[in-house]
Amino acid sequence: MSHRATLLLVMFVALVVRALYLTTDVDVPAQDTPDYDEIALNLVAGEGFVAHDNWYGYPMRSWRAPLYPALLAGVYGLFGYHHVLIQILQAFLGALTAVGVLCLGRRLHPPSALAVGLIAALYPPLVAGTAEIMTETLFASLLVAATLVGLRAEARSGWIGSGALVGLAMLTRPVGLLLAPALMLFPVWSAWQSRDGRAWLVAIRRCVWILAGVLLVLSPWTMRNATVHGAFVPVSTHGGFILAGSNADEPEWRKQDGWQISPEVFADSPSEIDRDRAWRAQGWSWIVAHPVPWLRLVGERFLRFWYVFRP
Residue 279 needs a FRET pair 20 to 30 A away by CA distance; which of 117, 150, 186, 223 works? Predict the structure, then answer.
């Protein structure tokens, strides 16, 4: 089968499966959707990037990474507030992600390219994400695009582009930062294998340009956060909460109704920055004090990562 035919096949399968999923009466959990919607609608109304309805009236100006709410705001501002267009857009993004995985397969291991492309097209969590007003579909597409551009780039513009896509992934979910060192490892590994001084220079330049692309995209938002909070917040103030909730005697992800924040927390610490720092200190303190239980939690989370069914 030709390369073009495999691209069309994966795109077709991915789109059909997602379209069929959207037509089924699947119960879509609210999850973080109200927060994203509120920020988007506040942006459309000219109130700025802020959520407060879900937080007992306390303004949360950097609780979420900005790219996904900005995407929602663009759609809502142009076409009105409803989720159908977002879901259709995410169906196309999901299909393009599967095509991107196919292209990565052709780059890294051609015999398995079609298989991995079809797996991405049919993988249940990726299909289910199409119906959810959540960051996963956009984030996955940016990760695949950044990786594909990073592996194929042979010049400065491509390396900057790869870094810029990593920056966009970070502005969708901050954990996207982990892709940057992974992309930098590829040229370093190639240079080490070649044992050539010139290859090391190319690898260093490549890493510098990838980092430049990340900073080019990320820095405006980081400067905005510094202006709003008077503190260094690279992307969001959500990380401390996740760190503390994920690493505890009874982590939030084990609870049926986890990831709740009581109003007393806001009353005791009205500052968004102070809450983030307190949660972050709490999470790190628990990890340092409980290294063996922490390793068990890491192993359990790794196993949960492979669970593909809902809920």
Answer: 223
Q: Are 48 and 81 in contact (CB under 8 A)?
A: no
Quick one: residue 104, left, alpha or beta (phi over 0 = left, psi -120 to 50 = alpha)?
alpha
Distance CA 100, CA 86 (A): 20
Task: Sort 64 into a burial class: Cβ within 10 Å, 0-12 / 13-18 / 19+.
Answer: buried
pLDDT in the model for residue 145: 97
At 306 the pLDDT is: 84
Taking the CA of residue 251 as centre, how many other CA atoms within 13 Å lie in the half-sphere pointing to its CB? 17
Mean confidence (pLDDT) of the chain: 93
3-state secondary structure of 42: helix
> At residue 59, what are phi and psi to the nearest 5 degrees?
-70, 130
Let me know: does 187 contact 202? Beta carbons within 8 Å. Answer: yes
Q: Which two tokens stand for residue 56?
A: 């007992």
> Residue 35 is encoded by which pair of tokens?
């927060």
**How far is 123 from 109, CA to CA, in rounded Å?**
20
Report the 10 Å Cβ neighbour count for 105: 21
Q: Which residues contact 185 (CB under 8 A, 6 or more apart)?
A: none
Contact 60, 50 (CB under 8 A): yes
Examine the pLDDT at 196 and tell me if it is beyond 90: no
Which carries the bigger pLDDT value, residue 305 or residue 142? 142
pTM above 0.85, yes or no: yes
Residue 242 has pLDDT above 80, yes or no: yes
* Contact predicate 241/279, CB 8 Å: yes
